[in-house]
Design a protein that fits this description.
With about 450 residues, this protein is mainly α. The chain has a domain of about 280 residues. It has 19 helices and no strands. Helix 3 packs parallel to helix 7. The protein is globular.
Length: about 450
């Protein structure tokens, strides 16, 4: 198909987005000066800094990626309820998405419309999901969840469009560094103040926080190899180690497994034989010590919460699978309640009551594959497996055709994330196709690697 080029008009009567934004910012500055003149220098400086940052992000092609990466992980701030926080985030990110889409139409960089295997698969997923949503138990909430999952493709496409140069790649890596720091600092500060709770960053759920770290730690490690400046290598390496400590203190067992798998995959792809052998020996020695010592076995049993936590998930999985057998073709939709899945949610044994809670409580399958089967029937399992296959095939091709070692190491990190997510998906339902915001980070990084490959960016 021939590409259509829409060059920006030079007519002075036409709409000039950049001049309009600058004039709007100047007007806002005057209003701020008048309004905040009595508020003191600190408030005024912060207000001007925030406005300047917003303006820079709006004018930069990669600005929307910066905003999504900085704010996606924030869902719990003291003094602000969850619904208000989500509304503010969606308004902020939505406005940047609109600006970016207008820029894409206005610039129209004489490129043919790219509609690859991933886009086609997402479209097929959306169509089948809509059919299943029509017959779902909760139509509106199920449709909303489906739309949130499909919006991940939009985030991916925006990243592909926005990342155009080596400088943009560096900006994405630096912003991810800032996002990780802002996420882990609150938990560590709480620990220093004597608050011994599971680390959850600025999120409501410790497991979601751990998934966010699983998606970003490999990228930080890759960035430590990519940047040439020694101080940047040191900064990324130290922050990666801090993030690993935060992930461990989140007490998310599935995230521990994913991190372990990611380390092995990354070392194998990067041919770090000495580190790989050392890690293997260390893991084998630890397993031998744990198995041979009753005391260490008891510590591992309690640390891993093998008792209560595992039993609870087993009950959730059993109830979910029974429901899949009742609705094997179309499923029963997303956003299920405990009573939709198990008749024991209200009247059952104490184990069932502890696992499901109240009848109206939200049901979490704690398994991506089971979640997809519950929502979309048995075809949902094929969709989940198919997504992993397409992503692996795409990144393996990028790995083989990498233009430089720095390009290759970033793809190695993405491959490590995908393989780790395959294992995490057996224990968590909000991984690559989760409706939560942690999944945004994977699709941002995936879009970045795709942009590097298609636009032949080498660094």
């Amino acid at each position: 198909m021939d590409s259509i080029s829409l060059k920006p008009s030079t007519d002075c009567t036409g709409f000039a987005p950049r001049k309009f934004l600058i004039s709007t910012a100047a007007f806002a500055n005057l209003l701020l000066t008048a309004t905040l003149s009595l508020a003191g220098p600190l408030v005024t400086t912060l207000a001007f800094s925030g406005l300047l940052f917003t303006l820079i992000c709006l004018l930069s092609p990669v600005g929307v990626v910066v905003v999504i990466a900085l704010f996606s992980h924030i869902s719990a701030v003291p003094g602000i309820d969850f619904d208000t926080m989500r509304l503010v985030k969606w308004c902020l990110v939505g406005s940047f998405l609109v600006i970016t889409l207008l820029r894409a139409v206005n610039e129209s960089r004489s490129q043919s419309l790219r509609f690859g295997a991933l886009e086609k698969y997402f479209l097929l997923f959306a169509l089948w999901g809509f059919v299943c949503t029509i017959v779902s138990i909760h139509f509106s909430s199920s449709l909303e969840s489906l739309m949130r999952i499909c919006s991940l493709l939009l985030i991916y496409e925006i990243a592909v469009f926005a990342v155009r140069s080596k400088r943009h790649v560096y900006i994405v890596l630096l912003v991810l560094l800032v996002a990780v720091l802002t996420a882990v600092i609150p938990s560590f500060s709480g620990l220093l103040q004597g608050s011994f709770h599971r680390f959850r960053g600025l999120q409501n759920n410790a497991n979601s926080f751990a998934i966010f770290l699983n998606f970003t730690i490999p990228v930080l490690v890759a960035a430590a190899f990519i940047f040439r400046q020694k101080y940047l290598k040191a900064i990324f390496g130290v922050v990666a180690l801090i993030a690993v400590a935060a992930l461990i203190l989140s007490w998310s067992r599935s995230a521990w497994i994913a991190l372990f798998v990611q380390a092995f995959v990354f070392l194998i792809l990067e041919r770090k034989k000495k580190l790989l052998i050392s890690l293997t020996i260390l893991c084998l020695a630890a397993m031998i010590f744990v198995v041979s010592s009753p005391t260490l076995r008891e510590i591992a049993y309690k640390t891993g919460r093998i008792g209560s936590g595992t039993t609870r998930r087993a009950l959730l999985w059993q109830a979910g699978w029974e429901q899949v057998k009742d609705s094997p073709v179309f499923g029963i939709g997303f956003e299920l309640k405990a009573g939709d899945v198990s008749e024991f949610a209200r009247w059952g044994s104490i184990q069932h009551v502890m696992a499901f809670g109240e009848y109206s409580n939200r049901y979490s399958a704690h398994n991506l594959y089971l979640k997809m089967m519950l929502a979309l029937g048995l075809p949902g399992l094929l969709f989940a497996v198919g997504f992993f296959y397409i992503l692996l095939r795409q990144q393996v091709r990028y790995y083989r055709q990498a233009r430089s070692p720095a390009n290759r190491v970033l793809v190695s990190a993405v491959l490590a994330i995908i393989v780790g997510a395959i294992f995490t998906s057996f224990f968590e339902s909000g991984v690559l196709l989760g409706a939560g915001t942690s999944a945004n980070y994977f699709w941002l990084v995936l879009g970045t690697t795709t942009a590097i490959f298609h636009k032949k960016i080498s660094f």
